[in-house]
Design a protein that fits this description.
Blueprint: H1 2-43, H2 46-57, H3 65-80, E1 85-97, E2 103-109, E3 112-115, E4 118-120, E5 132-139, H4 143-153, E6 157-160, H5 171-176, H6 180-190, E7 196-200, E8 228-231, H7 233-245, E9 250-254, E10 258-272, E11 277-287, H8 297-317, E12 323-330, H9 338-349, E13 353-359, E14 367-373, H10 376-383, H11 386-389, E15 396-399, E16 415-421, H12 426-429, H13 442-462
Parallel strand pairs: 5-6, 6-7, 7-8, 11-12, 11-13, 13-16, 14-15
Antiparallel strand pairs: 1-10, 2-3, 2-9, 4-8, 5-9, 10-12, 14-16
């Protein structure tokens, strides 16, 4: 009996020690995470960095002077943090220029015209110098082209008017449901003899802003390419209604955009070397380029400064990561993904071991959580950290798409994640003239930065 009693006592003591150990571990995590949230909200630098990027530099179209200015500025700011290493990674990027502002109108009867707001899609060819004027035909998507056939499309302008699905709570799902008409509409319509395409902006609300975005001609010969432009949602509604009243409307548009030869640009990279496992790399990043209509504050200046803030918060709290934590500001996500591909290419050539990558490219709105691209086993481990985020109202932990720029890094055994802010207002600003600094809330932006830093901290502390 005495022996049994001793064994029971020992087991009880071991159990209490284990519980205390777990308690200490949780408390340590909670303390570090709270430090980072507190500092992000009171002393964070991200909002000021974004102010400069947006208001002193502006839109950072790939290959532009402004994109180079953003490279120089962010490198200098990262240098000032006193991290272990900051460098530029050369990458060749496309240089597409919008030119003079676009112009469009529709004509109901000779001489009776109504102007509508349009913008060229990124990568589009120009119209002839005198513009394009022709009958216009409305379609609900690429699939309808084959139904109409060449007889009804040839010699006309195709108007793609499929709206984003307002019933989708996840607005990125609504976006993916109709973005094909923007990306491939010109290529497909040209096969039926269309002279040009006008595409409804990817926007859930009705407003006056046309939203640009990338489009592709694939390997189509330049001589067969037709011009493509986006029309504001207000303009699309007006044009659609007018076509129902008068199917013989003429549409006119003019744009003089141009694609030049590739130019050299850079990914901006900075890191804190790991103290215990320096060969294991954690990447956090966003894309430094933007479209040229606004100043790219939400897409993706926010993601860049939030990523930079991760290193700043580690330095300010005195946290020394076990693994190497690397920030990458990718160039050319918007119209080529050259930066993401180059980073992955170099990483593979150096046989670098990336264990985790986190991307912020969904705007600087209130953080809700993350999506994870991982094995089920790793995802189950991530879920054990979920309670640590509840005090900050961050609760969305789901499997799903992580991010475009980190995508090329993906390999078996690696965990990828994407910050998921509230998305309801994102497409009001996405790729449009109103993606500007005044539409970013400092507190929301800094909460996102702290949320990212907290996840990176947990991954670094625990590994996979």
């Amino acid at each position: 009996m005495k022996n049994n009693y001793k064994v029971s006592n020992k087991l009880a003591v071991l159990f209490i020690i284990a519980c205390l150990s777990v308690g200490r571990s949780q408390s340590k995590d909670e303390v570090q995470i709270k430090k980072m949230y507190d500092l992000a909200l009171t002393e964070g630098k991200g909002y000021d960095w974004l102010n400069y990027l947006s208001n002193q530099i502006g839109g950072r179209l790939s290959g532009s002077v402004q994109a180079q200015q953003a490279v120089d500025y962010t490198k200098a700011q990262l240098d000032s943090l006193g991290v272990d290493k900051v460098w530029l990674q050369p990458v060749m990027v496309p240089k597409w220029v919008r030119g003079t502002p676009e112009f469009a109108y529709f004509e109901t009867t000779p001489g009776s015209t109504t102007n509508v707001a349009i913008c060229a899609l990124g990568g589009s060819v120009a119209t002839p110098s005198t513009g394009v004027k022709a009958k216009i035909i409305e379609v609900d998507g690429i699939e309808q082209l084959s139904t109409l056939g060449k007889d009804q499309i040839e010699g006309k302008i195709v108007f793609f008017n499929r709206p984003m699905d307002a019933t989708q709570i996840n607005t990125f799902t609504a976006y993916s449901g109709c973005v094909d008409q923007r990306y491939a509409g010109a290529l497909e319509a040209s096969k039926y003899g269309a002279l040009g395409v006008i595409v409804r902006s990817m926007n859930l609300r009705l407003d006056i802003y046309p939203h640009t975005g990338s489009m592709s001609y694939g390997d189509q010969p330049e001589s067969e390419r037709i011009p493509a432009a986006a029309i504001s949602t207000n303009g699309a509604e007006l044009l659609s209604t007018s076509l129902k009243l008068n199917p013989d409307i003429n549409f006119y548009f003019k744009q003089n955009c141009k694609l030049f030869k590739d130019v050299e640009s850079y990914n901006v990279i900075a890191e804190i070397k790991g103290s215990e496992k320096p060969d294991e790399i954690i990447v956090v990043g966003g894309h430094l380029d933007s479209w040229d209509l606004g100043d790219g504050s939400h897409d993706d200046g926010a993601g860049c400064v939030q990523s930079m803030e991760v290193l700043n918060l580690f330095k300010k709290t005195g946290y020394k990561p076990k693994r190497t934590v690397r920030v990458v500001l990718f160039m050319n996500e918007e119209n080529g993904l050259r930066g993401g591909n180059k980073y992955a290419e170099v990483a593979i050539s150096k046989n670098e071991k990336h264990i985790f990558a986190l991307e912020s490219d969904s705007g600087g709105f209130t953080p809700r959580g993350f999506t994870f691209d991982s094995s089920q086993e790793d995802f189950e481990k991530v879920l054990t950290w979920k309670n640590l985020f509840k005090p900050y109202l961050v609760h969305y932990f789901e499997k799903g798409f992580a991010g475009a720029d980190i995508g090329p890094l993906k390999k078996d055994g690696m965990v990828m994640a994407g910050l998921r802010p509230d998305s309801q207002r994102y497409f009001d600003h996405h790729h449009a003239e109103n993606d500007t600094f005044e539409h970013v809330n400092r507190r929301e932006l800094q909460l996102g930065a702290a949320t990212m830093a907290s996840l990176v901290y947990l991954v670094d502390s625990n590994g996979f």
